[in-house]
Design a protein that fits this description.
Elements lengths: L3 H16 L14 H5 L13 H4 L11 E6 L3 E8 L5 E3 L8 E7 L7 E16 L12 E16 L4 E23 L5 E21 L5 E8 L2 E13 L11 E9 L2 E11 L2 E10 L6 E6 L9 E4 L5 E15 L2 E13 L17 E11 L4 E17 L6 E18 L1
Antiparallel strand pairs: 1-4, 1-20, 2-3, 2-20, 4-5, 5-6, 6-7, 7-8, 8-9, 8-10, 9-12, 10-11, 11-14, 12-13, 13-16, 14-15, 16-17, 17-18, 18-19, 19-20
Length: about 425
């Protein structure tokens, strides 16, 4: 019976892990475009390449050429936890995360007002692994996950100055979570639980892009909420034989809401070679109020549950500059970028967890593009942040301070024709 509450909390982490990847303010961030990443991750009003399929599908029709591009942004992130009672220090030993983005944008020559394409992105794909015997091992020891967004998109100029676009989003995902259980075998080792599962959801991405042809462009995009249905979840226990009937291996299901995101963006050509961009995001996390689970096999120690989460909707602000440093008669050659942003945390006090030790966050970015030829170009970016949050979790009682440091260099290649 004593293992019931920690176990249910572990299943909650499993579900939250599928929720948090896309828009939470944890150390994972949206890396869907190298150019945008260099400018503080802003880009809904500045359509420069095929990544506009994600940032604002309404801007894709303003592309002058067809394009394919791909990029990856390895994430080096670690968490330090200081327990408030003992002052002991514990750290993660995370492997490098490798999110990527791939785009194909087609601009038909016969229909100059039309563009269409597809994007494949990984809004979260990483592993969080705490050191052995850390104080929160009964909440989590290891968490690995992958979430993909596959989005076919169509974009159309309804006038010379206004473009609209829409994309359908298919979002498959998978996750594995491991934790120790507060029961011991005769040799002194603790019991263990592993939760794994697959989830799937569907949504859409809408955008409007305004380009009056001068020094100003604007964009408005809406990414719908996605209901991630966990239909293939599984729980496997390693416990003393006397407890095996209380904690049977088996299946679980859940239905988990991802929030809708509305973005208003602006781009201003300050000078001939200098652009300034700003994105304002509103993330509807308020819809994530309660987490529910349905277990295929119930016992007195393993019951279907409803757990309060009380997330709140948030604003995030992203801004940056782009400067054309070198150009010649054939066009631009070297472009430099710098930016940063701030995001409020959706996690209220009392609900901070070790898999996403969330906090209000400042971050900085920089980037560069080198145009090799009329067809090929290279992009690079770098992202860095440090966040800190002290809290006492109401469900587990885990009390301490989390400090997260993340550094992410990115590289991409583009081909236009």
């Amino acid at each position: 019976m004593h293992t019931c509450r920690p176990l249910l909390y572990s299943i909650a982490i499993f579900a939250i892990s599928l929720l948090n990847p896309f828009f939470s303010q944890g150390f994972q961030v949206n890396f869907q475009g190298q150019k945008q990443q260099g400018m503080g991750c802003a880009g809904s009003a500045f359509a420069q390449d095929a990544s506009t399929l994600f940032y604002n599908p309404g801007g894709a029709c303003f592309s002058s050429k067809s394009e394919v591009n791909g990029a990856t942004t390895p994430i080096f992130a670690n968490v330090m936890y200081v327990d408030s009672a003992t002052q002991e220090v514990f750290r993660t030993k995370n492997p490098v995360g490798t999110p990527f983005a791939a785009y194909a944008l087609i601009k038909p020559k016969k229909y100059h007002r039309l563009a269409y394409g597809i994007s494949i992105t990984t809004p979260f794909g990483s592993t969080v692994q705490y050191e052995d015997a850390w104080i929160g091992r009964f909440a989590i020891t290891r968490l690995a996950m992958k979430v993909f967004h596959i989005q076919p998109t169509v974009s159309l100029k309804v006038t010379d100055n206004i473009g609209i676009g829409a994309g359908f989003v298919w979002s498959p995902g998978e996750v594995t979570l491991e934790k120790d259980l507060p029961v011991q075998f005769n040799d002194g080792t603790f019991g263990h639980a592993m939760i794994s599962g697959k989830a799937m959801g569907f949504g859409y991405n809408l955008g409007v892009f305004y380009n009056p042809g001068g020094v100003f462009t604007a964009g408005l995009s809406y990414r719908s909420g996605i209901n991630m249905s966990v239909t293939e979840g599984n729980v496997a226990f390693h416990v003393p034989e006397g407890l095996s009937t209380n904690f049977p291996n088996g299946a679980l299901t859940s239905s988990l809401p991802l929030p809708a995101v509305t973005t208003l963006g602006f781009n201003v050509k300050v000078r001939k070679n200098l652009n300034a961009v700003l994105d304002i995001n509103y993330v509807g996390w308020k819809t994530y109020d309660t987490l529910s689970f349905d277990y295929a096999t119930n016992t007195t120690s393993l019951l279907d549950t409803k757990s309060a989460r009380r997330y709140k909707s948030i604003f995030a602000f992203r801004a940056g500059l782009q400067y054309v440093a070198i150009s010649d008669d054939s066009g631009q050659k070297l472009i430099a970028r710098i930016g940063g942003g701030f995001g409020f945390s959706p996690v209220q006090s009392g609900y901070v967890t070790p898999e996403t030790p969330d906090a209000n966050r400042w971050y900085g970015t920089a980037g560069v593009s080198y145009i090799l030829s009329q067809h090929f170009s290279l992009d690079a970016s770098v992202y860095a942040t440090k966040i800190q949050r002290a809290d006492t979790n109401l469900e587990t009682g885990l009390s301490g301070t989390f400090t997260t440091i993340a550094f992410a260099p990115g590289l991409g290649i583009n081909y236009k024709w």
